Amino acid sequence: MHEDKGFDFSVLSEFRKRLIEGGKEELLLNKILEKLVEMGLLKKLKKPKKQRTDSTHILAAIRPLNRLETLEETLRAALNSLSVAAPDWLKKNILKDWYDRYGRRIENSRLPKLDCEREALGNQIGKDGFYLLETIDSPLAPQWLSSLPAVEILRQVWIQQFYAPSEGVVKWRPPKDMPPSTLAIHSPYDIEAHYSSKRSVN
Q1: Which of 49, 66, 76, 193 is the most buried (most CB within 10 A)?
Q2: Cα 59 to Cα 84: distance, rounded to the nearest angstrom
Q3: In angstroms, how far is CA 190 from the centroid of its own chain?
């Protein structure tokens, strides 16, 4: 039986980008508000009134990831996107052991327990990510590959998580050299979801 995996996460991101660039976001919002009024979920006021506003708690529909999971899942998301957008190019440039390493979703339970092993794995994932980005940026690669949303996210996460490689050596950034949690990317599937606290809510 064929399982429908749904649309790629980049479709929604591209739609939102086109909406904003076209200045149509307010039009869409008004349509949503009209529908909510029709359904009785909102009440339309006859006269405009002042309303107190405040930031609202928004829960992101993502699974919390630790640093290792974020790295591997970000690279896996980029590879999945490339496998759809440029399958022939990916087959020629992917490393053979990547099929086993990134073929399925990362789970914390499968990660090494020792700190030294986790660091070694993180360095390996970092090295693989830098190799993929370097290959994409090569003059031999189609230029449009670098503009794929998943590739752009990969590049951003690698900048946030690693120092630029020196003589082929990959080094993680310590927490003090990383962006604050409210700015760092924690999931390749929703880059606007950030860990934050407001009063007693995390």
Answers
A1: 76
A2: 30
A3: 5
Helix (H, G, I), strand (E, B) or coil at 143: helix
How far apart (Å, rounded) are the C-alpha atoms in residues 40 and 23? 28
Classify residue 98: in a domain, yes or no.
yes
Structural domains counted in the chain: 1
Residue 145, CB-side half-sphere exposure with 13 Å CA sphere: 24
**Considering the domain boundaries, does residue 111 fall inside one?**
yes
Identify whether the C-beta of residue 80 lies closer than 8 Å to the C-beta of residue 51. no
pLDDT, one tens digit per residue, over 125-181 is 999 999 999 999 999 999 999 999 999 999 999 999 998 888 888 888 888 888 887
Domain residues for the domain of 105 are: 67-177
CB 193 within 8 A of CB 62: yes
Q: How far apart are CA 5 and CA 3, in angstroms?
A: 6
Listed in sequence order, the DSSP H helices in 105-170 are 115-136, 149-161
Euclidean distance between CA atoms 59 and 2, whole angstroms: 31
Of 135, 79, 68, whose CA–CA distance to 102 is shortest?
Answer: 79
Q: Which residue has the tokens 């880059």?
A: 191
Domain annotation covers residue 81:
yes
